[in-house]
Fold this sequence. Notes:
Distance between the termini: 38 Å
Number of strands: 22
Helix content: 25-40%
Shape: elongated
Strand order of the largest sheet: 3-2-1-4-5-6
Number of helices: 18
Radius of gyration: 31 Å
Amino acid sequence: MPDAPEETSHVDRVGHVVVVGADSIVVRLTEELERAGEQTVIVARAGADPDLISDARAHGAEVVTAGRVREPDLIAAGIKGAKAAVIIDEDDVWVIRVALVVEELNPEVRLVLGLSDARLGARLRPVLGECEILSPAALAAPSFVAAALATTDTMTFEIGGRLVVAGPADRVGGDRLGVIGDSEQTELSGAVLPADATGDIVLGTELVGRSSPAVRQSGMFGALTRVIDRRLRLVLLGLAILILLSTVYFKLVGVDWLEALYLAFTASTDTGIGDSEEHLGVGFRFGAVIIQLFGLMLSSGITAVIVDALISARLEELSGGIRGRPRDHVVVCGLGRIGTEVAIRLHSRGVSVVAIEQDERAVGVSRIRARKIPVLIGAAGEDAILAAAGVSRAHAVLALTDNDSVNLEIGLVAKQAKENVRVVTRVFDHELAGRVERRLKLGATRSLSMLAAPAFASAALSRTDRLIFPIGRWVLIFTELTVQADSGAAGIRLSELPDPDVARVLAHRPVGGNRWDWQPGNPRLAVGDQLAVAATRTGLARMLLLTKVTRRS
């Protein structure tokens, strides 16, 4: 058995990035930093997943293992000479504790914290100095929500001296600045910055139209549809038919149609008949009594259905269960940090949501129930639990647990229950995600780490002016770069920049110029020139290496 790699002290190292934690986001973050030419030292707690540690080492990171991550462990990782420290963990209190130790050891270090509680982060920001606080779930949730609703959200931002809009072609108007993606493609080369400039995700200058979810809404409209359910609609239909037939019956008495309608309505609803009975013969009066009896039964049925709906709604509120048979809703499986965030965002958009969580003590359960979203407790991969959640009548099922195999099982069970249900699966392994979309045909796959890691890398490198726009399970990054002295880009023409399929120059501003040129032609780049760029993660890393100062030995 080969010996484990020896851990060395990095006390004297300067200018590197220290990453504390060992989850999937850390691995993707290490990959991002490696592409940007940065040196990374990971401080992982003892007992961390060895596969994740191995993946991080494969991307060039050096790893220091520690028990509770105390001051000596951080010093050994070279925290005093680090330019940035990124701390990510499920436990917000642990993240804060480590952040306070880091801040004492190196007050000048740039701190980037991954916290689930956004309100706590807002209160900590003024206390910790130069600190960037990000929520992985908040960063990734819009992509999961868009996949569930089969839509792509729009983003409005400023780049290259102008306000632009990125989003679906039917919602972006004004000047068309370019095609930036194709939501129907599953491969990176076709989904992001397509070479043939054909796709449904574009960049423009105006936001037009309005998107609305295709699923049943909650709120006032949703409450009415739950009260006026199928049973009540059938009773009301029976009452309407009775009134129609009764109108014809009373017309035979010889009264006009308006009075016949009045007699039919009052008799059917038992709201009066005596004031007009002088128009009726004895035989017709017996008929009126029969109409009243049928009307009485139908009116009682209406009362019973409404009372049952109100009582059931109250019981649902108290117990967190599901009333009736939900339809055209979204089933969210797993109430971890991403599942909770996605469920809350869907609910805030007026979408009817049913959640499933195995552990009733999970923090997400109380947060979801506080918003009156029904929660089922049980294993989401079980047929009975998914059936109770109404998966056969659902618009979409989101498999968002922390286990890839469980998520795949949820997707397969959901497809068996309803072939055309929209399934969105959270998968960490990016290669597996591609195969799931192509071969298993389960629908869209998303990775929390792939969506969140670019933002953490930007924050760690003080490049917070980047905007990250999700396209399918990929991300497109918008930013502005400046050509530095002695960089590889100085002196070359725009057409000579490498990898146009992963990095596209949107606009160019020459050094000393006051205006951005959004149709730049093919100028020769000079030191100080600025470029507005749309790029994939790989493309941006290569552009950064090309435009920054060349390292000298």
